[in-house]
Specification:
The protein is an alpha/beta fold. Helices cover 43% and strands 13% of the residues. Helix 2 (72-83) crosses helix 10, helix 5 (134-149) crosses helix 9 and helix 6 crosses helix 8 (187-198). The structure holds glutamine.
Length: 443
């Protein structure tokens, strides 16, 4: 199979990272939930799913473990989908707590937890998921996480029971929030759902698909099903970027630069918006409660492949503006069509390609303005033959500029299917040669 070649090449990248960072043996396996203490500290699995749904993996990427706190962004996504951002963020904040995952991070005035990525905020978020009963609330959460993963998930009953039996700190947190008026509903029912949510079983490969669904605007790229609306993914990723790695969030954002979430069993998701999702499993945790090997490997991956979100090379491709007649009809074609070559004879000809967003549209209209005469009436062709998409911001900017230019007496012609929305302000031309003809006509 030819595709095997691609799989081998990308899997090898992950396998190299696994090999390199498996050597890191610092940190500790969590023990406060007794069955988690039995995790094999040698395990390290990594998986990457692209926004096209291609899945790659290395190491123990198929080994099941309990999702723990990595459930938090996905339950937040469910609450945001059901209630909207205003209602959810009225009940739980969005500021990094700067404290450990299980800290009593409640606003002294309102009792509102600092953010949904720490235990207090996550328990409050679970309580917000609309349902008639605790049972139904958990079913909704389990099904939603399953849709993110692209398969139905189950619960590790032993881990659930162990946490329910030993989760005094979380029980205390829920009661404190109840006393402060910041927890909706009965604490024991909510806690039961929260403990079960944390005990949902996943693999690193599942986590990569879940992360890729967030990367892909809420559509699971493997199943093609929409799980949550696109604006919800933006909100969730923003909260993950600032709060997802607990009090290691600043250092993580500096070194890796991706929205992420870790959990106490060693799971981690990292999202490169629009591109891919990574899932990791490595049970050794650092002092902040983040998986040591996953953090180190992601820092390396991010550096090697330029994944850091603050690293955005100047645009150029995919939108290229070529003023003049170099794109499509050349000067010879222009002369052949009877066009004059005196300075005023040549139309301003700007061409774009790829996706037009605000920045590309600004380049396009700037290039156009540069080529139109300062005085008198000019003629311009906007060549959008190679444009594949125009977003609303680009359309708005081009319209405003063209309105003004046509009011000044300039005449604008368009070529290409992407030109259809603009044709009200100008002349829609069927082809580049038709545009040459049009540009040649006396005004
Ligand atoms: N179930 C765990 C707890 O509440 C989740 C914490 C974590 O993964 N950091 O303690």
């Amino acid at each position: 199979m030819v595709k095997r070649v691609v799989f081998d090449a990308v899997n090898a990248v992950l396998a190299n990272l696994c090999r390199e960072f498996r050597e890191l043996n610092s940190g500790h396996v969590a023990t406060y939930i007794p069955p988690l203490a039995r995790a094999d500290p040698a395990d390290f699995g990594m998986a990457l799913t692209s926004a096209d749904g291609h899945r790659y993996q290395a190491g123990e990427a198929d080994k099941p473990f309990t999702i723990q706190s990595v459930s938090k962004p996905f339950v937040l996504a469910l609450a945001l989908t059901e209630l909207g951002a205003d209602e959810v963020f009225r009940r739980v904040g969005v500021e990094p707590s700067g404290e450990r995952f299980n800290a009593i991070s409640l606003d002294p005035e309102t009792g509102r937890p600092a953010n949904p990525m720490i235990n207090a905020g996550a328990i409050a978020t679970t309580a917000l998921v609309p349902a008639a009963s605790a049972e139904q609330r958990f079913t909704r959460i389990l099904e939603t996480l399953g849709r993110f993963a692209g398969r139905s998930l189950d619960v590790d009953d032993e881990v659930y029971r162990a946490e329910a039996a030993t989760g005094d700190r979380n029980i205390a947190l829920a009661h404190l929030m109840r006393a402060a008026g910041s927890l909706a509903g009965d604490p024991s029912g909510v806690l039961d759902v929260y403990f079960r949510q944390c005990a949902i079983r996943v693999t690193a490969l599942d986590l990569s698909v879940m992360a890729a669904t967030l990367a892909n605007g809420g559509v699971n790229p493997v199943t093609g099903a929409r799980v949550v609306p696109e604006p919800v993914t933006v909100q969730v990723l923003a909260v993950m970027a600032t709060c997802g790695m607990y009090d290691g969030s600043g250092d993580w954002l500096l070194r890796v630069g991706l929205p992420a979430k870790s959990g106490v069993s060693g799971g981690l998701v990292a999202v490169r918006p629009g591109r891919s999702g990574v899932g990791c499993y490595s049970p050794l945790l650092d002092a902040a409660g983040n998986p040591v090997r996953a953090v180190a490997a992601l820092a390396e991956l991010s550096r090697e492949f330029g994944l850091h979100l603050m690293h955005n090379p100047p645009s150029g491709a995919p939108t290229i503006i070529r003023p003049g007649l170099s794109d499509g009809p050349d000067e010879a074609a222009w002369r052949q069509a009877g066009g004059g070559t005196a300075p005023g004879d040549l139309p301003a000809w700007v061409a774009a390609q790829g996706e037009l967003d605000f920045t590309a549209a600004e380049q396009l209209v700037y290039a156009l303005a540069e080529r139109l005469p300062e005085v008198g009436r000019g003629r311009a062709v906007i060549d959008l033959v190679r444009v594949t998409a125009v977003d609303a911001a680009a359309e708005g900017l081009v319209r405003v500029v063209l309105d003004r230019l046509t009011a000044m007496g300039h005449r604008i012609g368009f070529v290409g299917d992407a030109a259809v929305p603009f044709s009200v302000e100008g002349t829609l031309l069927a082809s580049r040669s038709a545009a040459v003809e049009w540009a040649r006509l006396p005004s």
